[in-house]
Amino acid sequence: MGIILSLNTKNIYFVRYLSKNKITNNLKMNKPYSFSIDQMNGIVEDTYTKIINECENLKKITNCPNEQVVALLSVIASNYATTS
What we know:
- The chain is built from two helices and two strands.
- Residues 1-26 have low confidence and may be disordered.
- It has one domain (2-78).
- The chain is α+β, with helices and mostly antiparallel strands.
- The radius of gyration is 16 Å and the shape is flat.
- A two-stranded antiparallel ribbon has the order 1-2.
- Helix content is 46%, strand content 14%.
């Protein structure tokens, strides 16, 4: 998997290449997992807030559309996804 990042004055384009053996629609967790209440009210909430704030900063600085932010988050999520 690779990412090509092309910069110009107003746009950031992310293109990801997936190997032929990976199917993104078949993503699943290997084991059931739930955050604890303390984690949800602490690190999880903090992380969520930071991600949202950074996405808003990205939009403000680059003037990119929401779809570009979604594309970036999708690429990031693919780094943590497992395939069946």
